[in-house]
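pasting for ref
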Amino acid sequence: MGAKADFLVDARWLGAHRNDAGVVIVDTRAPKDFWSGHLAGARHFDPFPFHYSDSSDRGVNEFKDQLRWIFSALGITTHHTVICYENDSGMRATRVAWALEWMGHRNVKILDGGLKALPSERLTTDVTPFAPIQYDGTPIDETSASLGYIVNRIADREVQIFDVRSDAEYYAERVRAKHGGSIPGAIHLDWTASQDASGAFKSPDELRAQFAKLGLRPEAEVIPYCQGGYRAAHAYYALKLAGYPKVRNYWGSWGEWGNRDDVPIEHHRRKN
């Protein structure tokens, strides 16, 4: 099986580097989980309350301003190595990692398997003080896709849309917006198919075979989406891990697309 990418770290790496100068550990779980016990020295940022579903130019600029403020409040600069974790390799840690990458941070990593990969770890409720600092990253817009970007490329054979919502959402059995359905031409697979039984990422070889079977092509640009860009952030890293070099997270996702009346929508029925 192929080696995993350098944006994933395991328990051994964390044990060797967690006290290195310049390493910042970010707990991305819900507040109640963080305060029940977290890794020593971890700073807390639950991304769930902080998101946008407006990917217009105005929305993009507002979201970037929000992220600059958050990362500044967390005392993060691009000189830090940031380790994001939750209970497993889930949508919270990947969302924060992707947001940092979008905002120009090139040395962000995810604890693969999360706290489940550290069964003997003694968690703490103590919080180590830190000072805010001005975040200094320059956004990398090649990691992000907007509604307009997709509309302009929806018929482009070199761009593939990847719907990673649940089957119920894809088939409009569970509708979480004004409209049900999917972006036309989207290839669908629930995001959890990229996790192994322990909650870690599957191996690169397994992911590569899984995506190839779906018809996703490494030479194409692949744009995952979900409801709000969280599960899509997980898919962003799963695709990168599988060797897909051109990936963008459509963070507006169905929360934006499905609430519009001026974009095309495709409807699907389950096969009996």
